[in-house]
Amino acid sequence: MFDKNRQRDDVKHALVDPHALVVALGLQDSAKRTQKGWEVLCPHHAERTPSCGVYVGTDGTIAVHCLGCQWSTNAIGLIAEVRGYSVRDAEQFRETLAVGAEIAGLHSLADEIRDGEQPDENRPEVQKPKPRPEPEFPPVLEVLDLWESAFRVCDDLVANEYLKGRAIDSLRVAKSDQLRVIGFETKRPTWAYHKGLPWLNTGHRLIARVWAADGTMRSVRAWQCDGRDYAKRVPPTGHRAKGLVLANNVAVAMLRGEKKPAQVVIAEGEPDWACYACRASDNEAVIGIGSGLWTEEHAKKIPNGTPVVIATDLDEAGERYAVEIVKTLNNRMPVWRLTA
Fold first, then answer.
1. Structure confidence by residue, pLDDT tens digits, 121-145
2. φ, ψ for residue 66 (rounded to 5)?
3. Which of 25, 79, 101, 338 has the smallest count of CB within 10 Å of its CB?
4. What domains can you pick out in the chain, each with its CATH number?
5. CB 57 within 8 A of CB 49
6. Residue 124, C-beta contacts closer than 8 angstroms, at least 6 positions apart
7. For the packed helices 4-14 and 90-103, what is the interaxial angle rounded to 10 degrees?
8. Comparing C-alpha atoms, which of 162, 165, 173, 233 is closest to residue 199?
9. Residue 234 contacts residue 241 (beta carbons within 8 Å)
10. At 89, which helix (H) or strand (E)?
């Protein structure tokens, strides 16, 4: 009997090698090795440059996500897409599972699926892969080495001109040491990569430190400044990024419990944070956030009664961030929302 749910899980848990799956499906042409797995030409939409990631997900099985069209699936969905099968059609779904079982080397399971027979009692049970542990932040010493070996933004022509075009004063940014530039002599750790290439090769030369709720520097974010066709701003590859915010010097002192600022400005993203930070007074804390960065622990570090200005974007994401911030502040201080 075709036990769809059990056999689907068996196949899914047996397919744990992204490279083997890419080769078996004939997707190796133009494929690129990445820190997480492989990037292939997306079978879901036409493209000339590989942007579809095939990698091991947090549950230990293969995950698939295309940066180009935002298509996401698992190993079974990838097999169906490449072979032209519909997972909604019972017979085609059965053949999809059988192909997956063959790729995983489970030929008796493939026969069982195709023939609709009872499972062979002697067939060993497929062991579920262990979930991958949540990635940690990059090693602190590596982060410090990268930061210390980078240089001032005002000393780099490309970064200087780019910041000027964003109305960011590079001299003030350099004076307050909010951003630095990765040079060709800068130490490059293994996590300073994007799409399998070093940050320098993808134009991500600007870096900003990011801070935990206790005011310790735990990581950096890289910021592209030369217009190449890559993500504009990225965290370290293969490491945790959530729960870390951008912060100017006053904000860092506030997180450490060393200073009560006259005002706190919470902006969205690196450009807006840098704009507010380079214009802030000597007693104004400026924090930069994004998806998953702001936490209740950060909110608790803002002293009672300190005015807070929310300067997130006026779009769906910005409004969601604003609501989240207000909720975590718990009516402990006056809050204003910038609307222009």
1. 565 566 666 665 656 899 999 999 9
2. -100, 125
3. 338
4. 4-115 (3.90.580.10), 140-337 (no CATH)
5. no
6. none
7. 30
8. 233
9. no
10. none
Concatenated DSSP letters for 286-321? EEEE-TTT--HHHHHTSPTT--EEEE--SSHHHHHH
What pLDDT score was predicted for residue 53? 92
In the chain the beta strands, taken as DSSP E runs, fall at 32-33, 37-40, 52-56, 62-66, 72-74, 151-152, 179-181, 193-194, 197-198, 206-211, 217-223, 233-234, 246-247, 263-268, 284-289, 308-311, 335-337
* Number of other residues whose CB lies within 10 A of the CB of residue 165: 9
CB atoms within 10 A of CB 13: 17
Measure the CA angle with vertex 189, ends 187 and 194; round to 5°. 115
Residue 259 predicted with pLDDT over 60: yes
- Secondary structure letter of residue 25 according to DSSP: T
Q: How many helices (H) and strands (E) are present in the chain, helices listed first?
A: 13, 17
Q: 182 CB contacts (<8 Å, ≥6 apart)? A: 146, 150, 188, 192, 199, 200, 204, 205, 206, 207, 222
Q: Give the integer Cα–Cα distance in Å for 141 and 139.
A: 6
Q: Report the greatest alpha carbon distance in the chain.
A: 75
Which pTM does this prediction carry? 0.64
* Contact (Cβ atoms closer than 8 angstroms) between residue 217 and residue 143: yes
For 60, which DSSP code?
S
